Each structure stands twice: as C-alpha cells, then as structure tokens.
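User: Hi! I'm working on a homework problem where we have to compare a predicted structure to a textbook description. Could you give me the structure for the chain below?
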Amino acid sequence: MRRYTLTAIGQANHAGTTPFELRQDAGRVATRAAAELRRICQEAAPASIGNAGVISFQLAAANVVPGTARVELEVRAGTEVLDSIERSLEDFVAKVAAEEACDAVVERTSAKPAALFDERVYGVVEDVCRQHTDRCRPPLSYAGHDASVISTRLPTAMLFVPSTGGFSHSNREHTADEHLVLGAQALLDTVVRTGEAMLPRLLSEELLAA
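Assistant: Happy to help. Predicted structure tokens:
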C-alpha cells in the first residue's frame, strides 16, 4: 500500500470573469488525476485498487477558480505493480498540469510492503479449513491488518470469514452465525494443531539457546 499527496498550484481568479482558456485551474489538475486513478491502476494490473479519499481547494468557493488544490490518493497492489502505478501517476499529473498551465507535484507520504505469512502456520490453517468446508480459498488481502506487523516478529497466518455482501468498515457489515461458528472452530483447531506441531521444536530451540 502506498499513499500520496498531489499538490497543484495555479492562479486563483474570479470564475465569473475568467474564460476557460485563460484559467490556471489547480482544481482541474486534482480532479482529473483523481478521476484517472482507476484507469491507471487497472492498466497496471486488473486486480490493483486505488482511492481518492480527500480533496481540498483554496480558495474554496463556487465562484473562485482554485489557486491551490490537494488530493490524497491511496493505491494497493503488488510491489512491482505499485512501482508501475506510481510512474504512470506521475506522468499523468505532469501532462495534466502542463495542459492546465499549473505546477504540480506528487509526494509519496507512506509505503507499506506486502506481508508474506509463515508457510507452516498457513498450511495448518488451510488444512483445517478444508476439513470443515469445501468453500474456502487462499485469499489475497489488500487491507492493512495487525497480523502483518506481528508477522515480522512471530510465525503468523490469518483466517477470514465472509462478510455478507462484502461490506466492511460499514454499518452494513455482517457475518452469518454459521460462518462465525465455523471460523471460531477452525481457529481453535488451528491453534491446537499449530501448538502440537511447533511448540516442542520452539521450546527445544529456546532451551538450547539458553
């Protein structure tokens, strides 16, 4: 996951007296980039995703051509795809800024690398899930999870249960009781099997290190 702030600088002016061809409209640079982000992401890789979550103009008034505009962008994909998206975004912003007679800069404000989970723990999770149901598959999650941080210190894997309609971070988020029960049972079974398979070795390594 990477996040960016795009800042465009133009010339504030009266929208009622300034013809389109004489404007240096920073707002158009920001909004065109925000609108184009989906195409940029999907051309890099169909499964990649992006979002323009915050946009602001100065001065912010219906009758003022924005002299300054900022938009906060986020993209999520594999590392190589992220590099491609970043290059395409910067190229597009430079092109649009020139067309709108503005200056613009794209600043990367954060970057979070992909987390690869422990194959041993992951294998136990997958085996347990397939014992309980044939309706399971290995997921690729673009969301930021606490487990991705933990995985840098401890053997880690994750188990997901489905949300009805795919809603998350919403008051419509809901998971059916049957899926919650299956998920809790699979989690318990995974903990037991992981402990049986890994704890003796981990404890012996700890004793040898002492």
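For your comparison, note the following. The mean pLDDT is 92. The two ends are 39 Å apart (CA to CA). Good luck with the assignment!
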